[in-house]
Amino acid sequence: MVDIAKRRLFRRKAIDPTQIRLPWVNNLEQFTDLCTRCGKCEEVCETEIIHKGDGGYPAIDFAVDECTFCYKCAEICPEPIFNGIKTQPWNAKAVINDTCLAHNNVECRSCGDSCETMAITFKLRAGGVALPQLELADCNGCGACVSPCPTSSISVSNV
């Protein structure tokens, strides 16, 4: 008699396709096929945002810090999974949800202060605090706005 449950051992572990992977990796299938999960990218990350994600594959944790797009993770990788440095790193953009302090009439501009590209500005409004305005065209998805947010109201996701 064959134990069907044991066959799952040979299937590729499903990984979350919405989880932000490394910059310059656009093909998730190629990434999971070629990445050996050696951890070299984690070791060279200057902001230490690369950690083991689903299935042991490297993923980004913006709660720690931002991506500086230094390209060290791509340079150290022994596998051909990265695009060239002159290409767009990823299609990730910041998202601000309704738990934002400003949306709850509490003055806070920590995300705008940390945004180098000035993608987050604040629109004044009568009788309330200024609300964050996110200009997606200016957002590079670096995640600099995520960790300073006191209410964890900002995330970065693929668009």
TrEMBL record:
Q: Where does [4Fe-4S] cluster 2 bind?
A: 67, 70, 73, 77
State its cofactor. [4Fe-4S] cluster
Instruction: Report the GO molecular function annotations.
Output: 4 iron, 4 sulfur cluster binding; metal ion binding
Q: Which Pfam families match?
A: Fer4_7 (PF12838), Fer4_9 (PF13187)
Where does the protein principally reside? cytoplasm
* Residues annotated to bind [4Fe-4S] cluster 3: 139, 142, 145, 149
Q: Where in the cell is it found?
A: Cytoplasm
**Residue intervals of the 4Fe-4S ferredoxin-type domain:** 26-55, 56-87, 130-159
A Gene Ontology cellular-component term: cytoplasm
SUPFAM superfamilies associated with the record: 4Fe-4S ferredoxins
| Annotated residues for binding of [4Fe-4S] cluster 1 | 35, 38, 41, 45
Q: Which UniProt keywords apply?
A: 4Fe-4S, Cytoplasm, Iron, Iron-sulfur, Metal-binding, Repeat
The record's comment on protein family reads: Belongs to the NapF family.
Protein name, as recorded: Ferredoxin-type protein NapF
Which taxonomic lineage is given here? Bacteria, Pseudomonadati, Pseudomonadota, Gammaproteobacteria, Vibrionales
